[in-house]
């Protein structure tokens, strides 16, 4: 009977020793999920082709990175624009920093005869206003500029550039390349 109890105790401790690394990894995975990208859930994905819109590629999967998307309406005759945008920045060992922006009504600039990256395309420049922020430095109400370039003629060289004043300049990003998908209306 004593021999059976010792085997049972020994098996118990062997099981604890064997499971300890697995429990440690599970704890680390739980800690890592605390920094998952919010994927701009506040900005709905619209079906079809919006009057204007973009996304900068796949959402963040690594320890660092940035992601943005947005869409809205535009009236070229009245030079007015509306819409919503978001941007998420991931910095190592910190929570993701998310800003949601609305578009100010005045369309700053638009052209169907633009050239960037050595290719022709449509371009528009808008003013955005931070509506919500998880970045303590980037306050609600801050204004910034966004330039959207959509290449055409079968070339894929779209870009989106965010520019903000000093308090929000961590969110100054240029997204460019085949992963960027941009819709800027022609005249």
- N- to C-terminal distance: 90 Å
Biggest β-sheet: strands ordered side by side in the sheet: 8-7-6-5-4-3-2-1-9
Give the overall shape: globular
Main sheet overview = 9 strands, antiparallel
The Rg value, from CA coordinates, equals: 24 Å
**Count of helix runs:** 1
Number of strands: 9
Q: How much helicity do the residues have? A: 10-25%
Structural class: alpha+beta
The ordered string of helix (H) and strand (E) elements is HEEEEEEEEE
Give the DSSP E fraction (strand runs of 2 or more residues).
35-45%
Low-confidence stretches: 8-35
Average pLDDT for all residues = 81
Task: Describe the 3D structure.
With about 190 residues, the protein is α+β, with helices and mostly antiparallel strands. The protein has one helix and nine strands; from the N terminus they run αβββββββββ. It has one helix spanning about 1-30; strands at about 50-55, 65-75, 80-90, 95-115, 120-135, 145-150, 160-165, 175, 180-185. The protein has a nine-stranded antiparallel beta sheet, with no helix packed on it. It starts with a helix and ends with a strand.
Give a topology summary.
Layout: H1 2-32, E1 52-55, E2 65-75, E3 80-90, E4 97-116, E5 119-133, E6 143-151, E7 159-163, E8 173-176, E9 181-183
Antiparallel strand pairs: 1-2, 1-9, 2-3, 3-4, 4-5, 5-6, 6-7, 7-8
